[in-house]
């Protein structure tokens, strides 16, 4: 039930830090399965990541961390899996909140038939995707009623940070702050997110720009606002915007910069380019500010470790979409044309 909240979406965003905590501790307690998964990923010739929508964006964060460490990783949108053949030495990680997404299930079956080892990360027990997997891991976000994924996404990111850190031999202590980083980001950013959401609710189109591990977060922000506020949005690597997208930017065109605290100098230059075209820029920073010398509004959410930046950026991006939808009077829990679980091809 709504328990006094205006919508499931806001309730579930508020549940996201507890969900991240439960996910990380739950996976650690499931150490036999987690160990099997990490061992398989470590031995893999290539890691294929298969998912759709928001789950794909979580997968891209995992992929970015591993690619930077020199691993061979191929992120694949489930419905496009025909473009990549797998083999016996490959490990496929299927990420799906529901565990029932038809595109992801069909990809899993094809890759399994091609001899690959299958690991899944789902948020329910006894779902189809986990039943076909060699190792099934779970996020512990609890039931998500809002159609747009919020706390399940943040939980996936938490799980994938843990898995990538194990794979890369990193010390896990930084993850103890995961819950705190998400909850304090929520409190700190809610006011600014509401303001951005209200301003953007009157716009036709918005860009989300970032660099590095922030690009999948930009993609997720753009997907959320499209889904629940019906505002056209696109996400780009900031450096790519000058290769075409900037043509649309004119006075008051909204551009949201997502700053993970790395590549700050480059983002500052991209921000200047946008401002010189009189764009309406907003900056959401985790850990390190861009500090533009102009009037642009910037919010800084704290991270105890830069690796937690994607977790810290999730609440403001979800809240922007929530407040834009609210301002437009649309129901954030039941966006038109969308189903919670897409069981058709
Ligand atoms: C976004 C959203 C969808 C799902 C996608 C995959 O808010 O809800 O994009 O993320 O349909 O769903 P799962 O994770 O259940 O496979």
Question: How many strands appear in the DSSP assignment?
Answer: 10
Small molecules held by this entry: fructose -6-phosphate
**What structural category arises from helix and sheet content?**
alpha/beta
Order of helices and strands: HHHEHEEHEHEHHEHEEHEEH
- Beta-strand proportion: 15-25%
Q: How many strands, which pairing sense, and closed or not: the largest β-sheet?
A: 5 strands, parallel
Low-confidence stretches at least 5 residues in length (pLDDT < 50)? none
Order of strands across the main sheet: 2-1-3-4-5
Terminal Cα span: 31 Å
Radius of gyration: 19 Å
What's the overall geometry? Answer: globular
Coiled coil: 257-284
Catalytic activity: D-fructose 6-phosphate + L-glutamine = D-glucosamine 6-phosphate + L-glutamate
Keywords: Aminotransferase, Coiled coil, Glutamine amidotransferase, Repeat, Transferase
EC number: 2.6.1.16
Describe this structure in words.
This protein has 345 residues and is of the alpha/beta class. It has 11 helices and 10 strands. The chain has a 5-stranded parallel beta sheet with strand order 2-1-3-4-5, with helices on both faces. A 5-stranded parallel beta sheet has the order 7-6-8-9-10, sandwiched between helices. The radius of gyration is 19 Å and the shape is globular. Bound molecules: fructose -6-phosphate. The site of fructose -6-phosphate (F6R) has 15 residues, from helix 4 and helix 9.
């Amino acid at each position: 039930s709504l328990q006094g909240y205006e919508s499931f979406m806001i309730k579930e965003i508020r549940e996201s830090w507890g969900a991240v905590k439960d996910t990380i501790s739950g996976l650690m307690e499931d150490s036999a399965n987690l160990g099997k998964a990490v061992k398989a990923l470590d031995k893999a010739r290539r890691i294929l990541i298969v998912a759709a929508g928001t789950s794909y964006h979580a997968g891209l964060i995992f992929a970015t961390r591993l690619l930077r460490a020199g691993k061979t990783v191929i992120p694949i949108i489930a419905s496009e899996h025909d473009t990549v053949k797998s083999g016996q030495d490959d490990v496929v990680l299927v990420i799906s909140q529901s565990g029932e997404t038809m595109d992801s299930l069909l990809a899993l079956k094809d890759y399994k038939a091609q001899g690959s080892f299958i690991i899944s990360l789902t948020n329910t027990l006894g779902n189809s995707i986990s039943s076909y997997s060699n190792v099934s891991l779970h996020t512990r976000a609890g039931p998500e009623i809002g159609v747009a994924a919020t706390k399940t996404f943040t939980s996936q990111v938490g799980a994938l940070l843990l898995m990538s850190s194990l794979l890369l031999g990193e010390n896990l202590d930084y993850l103890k702050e995961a819950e705190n980083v998400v909850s304090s980001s929520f409190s700190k950013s809610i006011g600014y997110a509401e303001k951005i959401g209200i301003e953007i609710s009157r716009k036709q189109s918005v860009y989300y720009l970032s660099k590095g591990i922030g690009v999948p977060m930009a993609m997720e922000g753009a997907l959320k606002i499209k889904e629940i506020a019906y505002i056209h949005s696109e996400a780009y690597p900031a450096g790519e915007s000058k290769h075409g997208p900037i043509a649309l930017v004119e006075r008051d065109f909204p551009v949201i910069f997502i700053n993970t605290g790395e590549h700050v100098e480059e983002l500052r230059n991209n921000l200047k380019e946008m401002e010189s075209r009189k764009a309406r820029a907003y900056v959401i920073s985790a850990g390190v500010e861009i500090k533009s010398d102009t009037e642009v509004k910037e919010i800084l959410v704290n991270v105890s470790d830069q690796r937690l930046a994607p977790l810290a950026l999730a609440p403001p991006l979800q809240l922007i979409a929530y407040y834009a939808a609210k301002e437009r009077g649309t129901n954030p829990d039941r966006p038109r044309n969308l189903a919670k679980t897409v069981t058709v091809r």
